[in-house]
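Appendix C reproduces, verbatim, an entry submitted by the partner laboratory led by Prof. M.T., so that reviewers can inspect both the input and the predicted structure.
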Amino acid sequence: MKFINKKEEYGKVILKKTNSILDNFYNRFKELLQYNITYEKVMLNNTLFNRSLSTNSQINSQSIDIFIGRDKNKILSSIIKIENRGNILLLPQVVFKREEDFNDLLNIIVEIDKNLNKEIIKNPKPQWLENNVNYSINISENIKSELANIDEKINKLNEKKTELNQNLEKEEQIKDLLFENGKPLENAIIEALRILDYKAENKYIGNNEIDILATSPEGDIFCCEAEGKDNNAIDITKFRQLSDNLNIYKDNYPDDTTYAILFGNPYRLKNIEERIEEPFTKHCLNRAKDNNVILIKTIDLFFVIRDIKNCNDNKKIEEYKKKCREAILNSKGKIVVFPKIEIP
């Protein structure tokens, strides 16, 4: 065994063998364990058991490593199972802080002893035995085949689960309209606009980036900016960038009819029911009116998309989408008020 300098840092005691009979010990005392020695191998000789053999004779024993430190080769704890002799248990030191710690340790040691006496540990089958057909048993092979079929089914179910999780993540993305900001909010807006049949994307014109460029089926083009505020209304912060992007687009595509939209997610950290304040500042409303900027609350956009997804009438959905696009186009200089849809 190697003694450790107490100034040397080895880190936490780590449980190496999960689901072992020392799980309760570890869970109860993991914050109270410390150690001053480590070892790499346990070897016992017969003199420990008063056998009349040389002191170098070894006895049949099996050492199961339980706890290790930061250096995975340094062992801190083992269960040593000795043939026909019982068990030796090596544990890290428990630093007692309360009287109940000691009582709990006694109870856990009794529990460990009971489990050790009834536990049978088998050696793993050697590779030569597993691969040789001369030792095969028909019933065993049938069971192995059945297990293989079950594994195949499990793999297919896991693939299906992964696919469903991906679909769920895509469907849940629209909820980002309620609480996100930055890029996640922009991505949710793009997805919502696509559901409304806009062609929506992040677009670069030269070295200039337009966060959201949306083109309606009717041919209307919108340069968009999005902003989320933690506990405030949407102000005029994004107006300069919105105006610059609109001018850049018009300079490059002078024949297109282009409008500006500012998407706002104000007070995003509050519950929806608590967002009773005005969503846009007075200054923001006046600037939007002066510059014909369309204002959209992302909360309102969420409920539009939710209702579309919850409706099973395709004809009604197409009519509703068109009405929503018309509401957006006709709201230059003010906040969009979306129409309602009756869900059958």
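Confidence is low (pLDDT under 50) at residues 1-10, 47-57. Additional entries are available on request from the coordinating office.
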